[in-house]
User: Fold this.
Amino acid sequence: MKHRKLICLWFVFLFVFAPGTLFAADKLIADYGGHAGFQSAVWVAKDFKIFDKYGIDAEVIMITGSARSVAALLGGSTQFATGSATGPLAAAAKGSDIKILAASYNKFPYAFVVKPDIRTPKDLRGKKINILNYGGSNDLALQLALKEWGMKLADAQIIVGGDAPTRMGSLMSGRTDATILSPPHLTIAVKAGYRVLADMGDMSANFPQSTLNVKGSYMRDNRDLVKRFVRAYAEAIHAIKTQRDRTIKVFANRMRIDDAETVKTTY
Assistant:
C-alpha cells in the first residue's frame, strides 16, 4: 500500500510540478518587424516567458518590412509573422494561403519628421522623402498623408532608404529632407532638433498596422498550437499595457537605449 501511495505521489509531482519533463514544448519561429514600441508584442512574449507558459518554444527573429515577412512565412522559414496588413492583404489578393489572426494596433504609429526649415506640408514639394520600401505601411502612410494635404507622390522625391535607424541617419546627415519614424527613433530625432510635421496617429486614416499572420494550412494542421500562440500574443499585449516598469526594462534591453526618457516616451 505504501508503495502504491508513493507511486501516486510521484505521478502527481511529475504532472503538476514538472510538466516540461513529460511534454516537450512546440518549437516554432516567429518574426517581428523591428524594435519600435508598436512592434513589441512578440519579443515581450518571449522575454516575459509567456510563450513558455503556453508550451511554446519560440525563436523570435527580426524581419523588416511586411513584404519580406510574408515571403518568409509563405516559404516556410517562419510559422508566425507580424507586421503591417499591407503584406498579407496583397498576398491574399493574389491567392496566397495566408490568414490574419489578430491586430494589436489600428492606427499608423508614425510621425512625419522633417528638417527644421520645413514648416508646412507644402514645403515638401521637390524634397527627398525617405521610406522603408514600396508597397508597405510606410508607403501607404505617405500616400494617405499626401492625399490629406492635397498633394501627390509626384510632388516630392520618394526614396527607399531602409529601416528606421538608417532613415534617421540619412535625415540627420542631410542626405534626405523628411522621413517617417516612430519611437524610439522619433524621440531621438526630435531631441536632435528635427521637427514633427504631423503625427499620423491624429490623421483620419485608420489601418491595421500590427497584424499577426499565419498560413492557412498551418492553422488547419496545428489548430491547438495556433490558439495557444494567439493567447500568448494577447497576454503579452495585456502585460505591456499593465506592467509598465517591467515592460520598460524589456524595451530598454531590446532597443539598446540607455536614455530613460527616450524609453519612457516609446512606452
Q: What stands out?
A: The longest strand covers residues 98-105. Residues 5-22 have pLDDT under 50 and may be disordered.
